[in-house]
Amino acid sequence: MSQAPTKTTGQPTENPSPQRDHAERISKIMQEKPSDLNRQIGLNLFRDMTLGRRFEDKCAEMYYRGKMFGFVHLYNGQEAISTGVIGSMKRQHDWFCSTYRDHVHALSAGVPAREVMSELFGKETGCSKGRGGSMHLFSKEHHLLGGYAFIGEGIPVALGAAFSSLYKKDALGDNTSDAVTAAFFGDGTCNNGQFFECLNMAQLWKLPIIFVVENNKWAIGMAHDRATSEPEIWRKADAFGMAGEEVDGMDVLAVRAATQRALERARAGEGPTLLECLTYRFRGHSLADPDELRSSEEKEFWSKKDPLKKLESDLIEKELVSSQELRDIEKEIDEEVKDCVEFALKAPEPSADELTKYIWAEK
């Protein structure tokens, strides 16, 4: 029997105001089951989130110095989602499908920082051999199915990966085929046809997929509440009898716990989950965006909910790590990011002789 949407409390809420703000929604969320946390898990989460943040900061520096070209969309502020979701899954087993804001997803999936930075510089050593750039990161080895320049493009691709996993098990008899696919997309995608069509098929066939909505309140310059008749996206799962959940996307432990619940359902054959993560991007839509549409009060309010600071507070409060250990990790990450920039700057450009390479399959 299909599962209707539930809050993380397990209880449905009363009819919400269409204009309810993220902050109020987050304040009403309570974790049904906390994520597992020990010293090593905490350090791994902090390391991954810090790498994402410092990598994106360096991208901004390189872009403004003229070393990086095209459209570059950064992930600052949303790191808890990438780390919480992908970090709960199995690298090189499960599958991940990103958006044009894909750098940190790639890093969390295990793509080396050198390869990601090289791709942003258009170098042959990039994960897409310099042919994709910022919005089109891809790595077969790391099960990253790509970044996509247009919203919603990646959802059908993710659906196909989930179908493939189920088909291998049910039709081909491969009982080891239990891979789950995570499809990432933003709130602006959730009024598009691909979103609804893929939710329908996923629930119809009970596919092992998690639809991860990174709801950062803004679709480029359009406020989320102005663009949809139902701003609580997780509720849209109800139309398909699908499991839906709303989670604090600024809290990596909350995202991790919700993902673990979704993974348990998917691997048990209970089908997909629509996971709405309430978050906020700390920078403009892209590095070409002067970010003048959002109020300074709004940006200041959300900066105080920094997911990295939240995790640090949790780890220290639980006496799992010391502040100095975290500062040491930051220094290590800074060296890693510095190294990947130096590597990318020295890396070769793609050869003009291979202009048409990777367009057609090679025998």
Structural write-up:
The protein is of the alpha/beta class and 363 residues long. The protein has one domain: Rossmann fold (3-Layer(aba) Sandwich). It has helices at residues 22-27, 39-64, 79-86, 103-108, 113-120, 154-170, 193-204, 224-227, 252-267, 296-303, 307-317, 323-346; strands at 95-97, 181-186, 209-215, 218-219, 222-223, 243-248, 273-278. Strands 1-2-3-7-6 form a five-stranded parallel β-sheet, sandwiched between helices. The chain has a two-stranded antiparallel ribbon with strand order 4-5. Helix 3 packs parallel to helix 9 and helix 5 (113-120) packs across helix 12.
CATH topology: Rossmann fold
Spatial shape: globular
Mean pLDDT: 92
For the record, the CATH architecture stands as 3-Layer(aba) Sandwich
Please state roughly what percent of the residues sit in beta strands, choosing from under 5%, 5-15%, 15-25%, 25-35%, 35-45% or over 45%: 5-15%
Tally of individual helices: 12
Helix content: 40-55%
CATH superfamily: Thiamin diphosphate (ThDP)-binding fold, Pyr/PP domains
Largest sheet: 5 strands, parallel
Distance between the termini: 46 Å
Backbone CA Rg: 20 Å
Along the chain, the helix and strand elements come as HHHEHHHEHEEEHEHEHHH
- Given this structure, which CATH class is correct? Alpha Beta
- Order of adjacent strands in the largest pleated sheet: 1-2-3-7-6
Q: What's the β-strand tally?
A: 7
Oligomer: single chain
Query: What structural category characterises the helix and strand content?
Result: alpha/beta
Low-confidence stretches: 8-19
User: In the residues, how many domains can be counted?
Assistant: 1
